[in-house]
Design a protein that fits this description.
Length: 238
C-alpha cells in the first residue's frame, strides 16, 4: 500500500505547491483523499482521474475541494462518472455543485460510518472544524492508516486512530499560535495524539507556507519519536 502525497499545503499553496490531496494506491484500488488546489494535474500525472475507485473528502473548504469543479469538465467531456464520499455541507458552493451534477455520485458520510471500497474498509471519524468535517481510518490486511482532515482537538480522536501504523495529521500551528477555538491542531498536539493513540509514524500535513516547518518539526519531535513533515511528491509505503 502506498500513499502519494500530491499536495500538503493549506489553506493556500506555496510557490509551485498544491493544497491537500493524497492518493492511496493498493494492488486493486486507487482512492483520492481530498482534491485541493493544484491536485488534479498531479493526480492526472499518475492515473486518469476517472479510473479512481472513489474520492473521499474530509470537508468542503476550498483548499480540499478546489479542483472538483475542474474535474467536472473532464468527466463531462469523457462522459464518465466518479463516486465521492463526503460529509454534507449545504453552505458550500462546491458541495451544491457536486451534489447537483450527475457526473458525481455523492454518498454522504458522518463520523462513525463505515463503508467498503473494493477490498478496503473505511471508517469516517471525528473532527472539530468550523464546517462539517470527518477524518478517515483505512483498514487493510497489512495495516491501518489514518487521515485527520482538518481538525482541532476532539475527545474521540485518540480512540478513533488507536494503533494506526501511520497517521497523516493536521499540525498546522506552532504551539505559540494555537488556541482552543482555532480550526487546526498544533504540531505538538498532533504529536501528542499520535503518541496517545500508539501510532508508529506521524506525518504532519496541512502545512501553511507562512509558518516555519523547522519549528513544527522540533515541537512535534519532543513528543513523538517518528515524526516527519509531509513533502509534496513523497510516496509513503505501508
Ligand atoms: Zn478546513
Amino acid at each position: 500500500m502506498k500513499i502519494h502525497l500530491l499536495g500538503v499545503n493549506g489553506p493556500f499553496p506555496e510557490s509551485g505547491g498544491a493544497t491537500s490531496g493524497y492518493l492511496l494506491e493498493t494492488d486493486r484500488e486507487l482512492i483520492q483523499f481530498d482534491l485541493g488546489s493544484g491536485i488534479l494535474s498531479r493526480l492526472t500525472a499518475r492515473t486518469a482521474p476517472e479510473a479512481l475507485s472513489a474520492i473521499c473528502l474530509s470537508h468542503w473548504h476550498y483548499d480540499h475541494t478546489a479542483d472538483l469543479p475542474v474535474l467536472l469538465y473532464r468527466l463531462q467531456a469523457l462522459g464518465k462518472q466518479i463516486r465521492i464520499y463526503a460529509p454534507e455541507d449545504e453552505s458550500s458552493p462546491v458541495f451544491r455543485l457536486v451534489s447537483s451534477e450527475p457526473s458525481f455520485i455523492l454518498t454522504s458520510v458522518r463520523p462513525g460510518d463505515s463503508f467498503q471500497i473494493g477490498d478496503l474498509t473505511l471508517t469516517a471519524g471525528p473532527a472539530r472544524h468550523p464546517v462539517p468535517t470527518v477524518g478517515y481510518r483505512i483498514h487493510t490486511a497489512e495495516a491501518d492508516w489514518g487521515y485527520t482532515g482538518d481538525t482541532n482537538t476532539h475527545p474521540d480522536l485518540v480512540s478513533f486512530y488507536q494503533d494506526c501504523r501511520l497517521l497523516l495529521c493536521d499540525g498546522l500551528f506552532p504551539a505559540e499560535s494555537w488556541g482552543e477555538q482555532k480550526p487546526h491542531l498544533s504540531a505538538s498536539l498532533a504529536a501528542q495524539l499520535a503518541a496517545d493513540a500508539s501510532c508508529e509514524q506521524l506525518v504532519l500535513t496541512q502545512l501553511n507556507p507562512c509558518i516555519s516547518p523547522r519549528v513544527l518539526l522540533e515541537e512535534a519531535r519532543a513528543l513523538h519519536p517518528r515524526v516527519t513533515l509531509a513533502r509534496a511528491g513523497e510516496r509513503l509505503t505501508l
